[in-house]
Design brief:
Distance between the termini: 63 Å
Helix content: 25-40%
Order of helices and strands: EEEEEEHHEEHEEEEHHEE
Structural class: alpha+beta
Number of strands: 14
Radius of gyration: 30 Å
Number of helices: 5
Strand content: 35-45%
Largest sheet: 7 strands, mixed
CATH architecture of the largest domain: Sandwich
Strand order of the largest sheet: 1-2-12-4-11-6-9
């Protein structure tokens, strides 16, 4: 299934060009790296690329890919968009003064709170503050194989955890190539819960082009049921499951041809094994 894409472009007062496009989500049965929606490309201090999507009842996972054209630090962020429309008053300065007053008036209570806060931070998942309930995994292809680079739910201290920490903080030293992103719910979230999100990729600190891609719902979400037969992939080739279905149909047709052939052979054998003598039909020895 080929995604439908439309795009528009604008330029702001600072000379930053902004680009927008929409791309249709594929059904769950077709969700894999080969069908990842193309976010475009980025390179150092050139482009910021954002994808706005949503996991729905019949949409458990989304795959994206981006071409990184420069060696250098790569920053990726995933944020839940729930509540983003609400304006929140910045009380950070007020909170800091309350914290200082608490430290003076109740040093023991303040120290205990700091220990509890530290323990919570140590046990917190990487996305708990920005996209609680979502899981982000980053892949690349090496020697023709899918390789998991980072995982937001990986065990602390593992290579995947450390890499994801660097990716989220913008300290990951990326090499030129194609990177894949898998967005899914983690095990703490009901599989039917809608999870809107924004996935953003940037190399460097500045950008001249701002790309925004919005993913529209899949046919499964529109039809309110999960497909059982895969469609062709975005590059025009058949998915493995679809190829198996076609091969099975071919086997069935072959079996039917053989059955007809056997019936014809039996009919011929029956004719050749009898002869007529007078008005009687007898079997040949």
């Amino acid at each position: 299934m080929v995604s439908s894409i439309s795009s528009t472009t604008n330029k702001d007062e600072n000379g930053v060009s902004s680009w927008e496009k929409t791309v249709q989500d594929v059904n769950d049965i077709d969700e894999k790296l080969a069908n990842a929606r193309d976010m475009g490309y980025t390179r150092l201090n050139y482009a910021r690329v954002t994808t706005v999507g949503k996991l729905a009842k019949y949409d458990s996972v989304d795959y994206y890919k981006i071409q990184v054209q420069s060696n250098g630090k790569l920053a990726v962020s995933l944020r839940s968009t729930e509540g983003d429309d609400e304006k929140v008053l910045d009380l950070s300065e007020y909170d800091a003064k309350l914290e200082e007053l608490r430290k003076i008036t109740d040093p023991e209570g303040w120290a205990k709170e700091q220990e509890e806060k530290k323990a919570q931070e140590e046990n917190a998942r990487l996305l708990d503050l920005t996209a609680k309930g979502l899981q982000l995994q980053v892949y690349t292809i090496k020697n023709g194989k899918e390789v998991l680079i980072g995982d937001s739910n990986a065990e602390k201290g593992s290579d995947e955890y450390e890499a994801m920490s660097q990716i989220l903080s913008g300290d990951y030293k990326a090499k030129k190539g194609t990177y894949y992103f898998k967005v899914s719910r983690d095990e703490t979230v009901d599989s039917d819960k809608e999870m809107p999100y924004a996935l953003q990729v940037l190399q460097g600190k500045n950008y001249k082009h701002d790309y925004v891609m919005t993913e529209t719902v899949s046919e499964d979400t529109t039809n309110k049921k999960n497909s059982t037969v895969p469609t062709s992939s975005t590059d025009g080739t058949l998915s493995g499951a679809n190829a198996m279905l076609i091969q099975a149909a071919r086997y069935e047709a072959t079996a039917q041809m053989l059955a007809v052939g056997y019936q014809n052979m039996a009919s011929i054998y029956s004719k050749n094994s009898t002869m007529t003598v007078g008005s009687l039909t007898v079997s040949k020895l």
